[in-house]
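ARCHIVE RECORD
Type: protein–small molecule complex
Small molecule: guanosine-5'-diphosphate
Source of inputs: curated submission
Record status: active
Notes field left blank by submitter.
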Amino acid sequence: MDDLVAGLLAGKVRPLAKAITVVENDRPGKRELLKKIYPQTGNAYLLGITGPPGAGKSTLTDKVIVKLRQQGKTVGVIAVDPSSPFSGGAILGDRIRMQQHALDDGVFIRSMATRSHLGGLSKSAVDVIHLMDAAGKDVIIIETVGVGQDEVDIVRIAKTTVVVMVPGLGDSVQIAKAGVMEIADVFAVNKADRDGSDKLISELRAMLDMVKNKEKPEIFRTIAVDDTGIDELVQGIYAHGDRVLETGLLRKKIVEIAESELRAYLLDTIMERSTNMASYEDVVKRVADKKITPMDGVDEIFIGLGLQKQN
Ligand SMILES: Nc1nc2c(ncn2[C@@H]2O[C@H](COP(=O)(O)OP(=O)(O)O)[C@@H](O)[C@H]2O)c(=O)[nH]1
Ligand SMILES: [Mg+2]
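STRUCTURE (tokenized, with ligand):
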């Protein structure tokens, strides 16, 4: 364990890969490992990249990595694929799209399927972020598909979130979906080589005009496949990051992240302990049979767990 932690903190590739396996597979030692590295986290720039499937997120990520490497920054990437862990299709695609970095020790890419869990952050994704952070990655890119709540939540922990959009996917639907307006710090209108990007941008602007109490995100036009607009996008990302720092929002965000992490663990812990209780099934059955209300069921479970019932 000590060797693993030392290697990880020194930024070595193998220990990081090993530590990620421990965390993802819930191996023994996970808790101790996270405890040891946790004080060393909080230094990476967490960058969320989200948007609909096929928007070009992985291609864009790949191009952003190139820029960051040119600036001498080390990069971690977590590509979260919510599709079936058995299909592997998108994960394979990510590997292919980012494989130019396979031999670069300054880039660590991990694709993972989201596990089924009860709402909130995908804990293992967050734990993997902590590991990469402790391993000294300067920037950690979290690529998620902007569909489910899990993905939105993962992106919530990012300092800057880029929402990738493409023309012709039913623009207003795209824009209205999944609280895109709330989560976007920066927009990338990708596939600008295709028709309709002007229309998409003007629709976006119109939507943004209606959003109050929030800084208007900058919109960048990109063609990820031929590296167009990537410099500007990276600059826009850093400009946003600087504003977050200046406005003192970072501390607020850090506390929010801590809170949502705590919440995810709290929920998981309660669920794990509850479902391990002998009477759990019985409580479920009685709720199903309308014998007790779910509220009363919760009281019973809490009492069973030795938690005091509130008045
Ligand atoms: N025409 C065009 N195709 C693109 C562009 N960016 C990405 N693509 C293509 O769109 C497809 C999906 O890209 P990918 O990065 O896997 O999308 P993701 O699902 O959002 O990660 C791939 O075939 C890319 O080559 C672009 O700017 N223009
Ligand atoms: Mg992808």
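CURATOR ANNOTATION: Residues 41-247 form a domain with the Rossmann fold fold (CATH 3.40.50.300).
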